[in-house]
C-alpha cells in the first residue's frame, strides 16, 4: 500500500510514526559469561562496564572447566532494555568471551548467594537474633559471649531481609559472595 492510498488522517503507515520507542524503565538482569581462564579477561569485562558507566550490582567469578581453561563470570546489572542489549553485544565482542547468556530472559533460573553476618548483642537481643536465624535457616558458625557469626544462603532478597532484621539487633559486619545462578531444566 503506498502513501497515496492511505485515507486522510490515517497514521497507520505514515513515515512520521516510525520513530523507535525506547523504554526508560530500569531492569535488573543476571548475565552468565563463559570466558577463557587467562590473566586480564576479568579486567577487560570490568573495564567494559566501568568505561561506559554501567553499574555492577553483583559479580562472581570461578573456574568451571579446569581442562578447558574456562571460567564463568556471573554479573548482575541494571539498565534499560537497550542498555542491557548493548552490554550483551559488547561482551560478546571481547575476544576471550565464548558465550553470553541473559538468564533473566532465557528462562527460569535459580539464584543463590552466601553471606556471613556478625551480630554483637547481649540479653534479649541475643536471644532474638538466634530465633530469627532459626527462622531463616541461618547457621551459627562462630559464637562468643558477646557476638555470633551467622552463615546464610539463599536468594539475594532473603539475604537482604535477614540483614534488615539483624540491624536493630546489633549487626556489625556483613560479607557476601555475590550471586551464583543457573538456568533451570535440561
UniProtKB/TrEMBL annotation:
Its EC number is 2.2.1.6. It catalyses: 2 pyruvate + H(+) = (2S)-2-acetolactate + CO2. Keywords: Amino-acid biosynthesis, Branched-chain amino acid biosynthesis, Transferase. Residues 30-105 form the ACT domain. Pathway: Amino-acid biosynthesis; L-isoleucine biosynthesis; L-isoleucine from 2-oxobutanoate: step 1/4; Amino-acid biosynthesis; L-valine biosynthesis; L-valine from pyruvate: step 1/4. Belongs to the acetolactate synthase small subunit family. NCBIfam families: acolac_sm, PRK11895.1. Catalyzes the conversion of 2 pyruvate molecules into acetolactate in the first common step of the biosynthetic pathway of the branched-amino acids such as leucine, isoleucine, and valine. Dimer of large and small chains. This is Acetolactate synthase small subunit. The gene is ilvN.
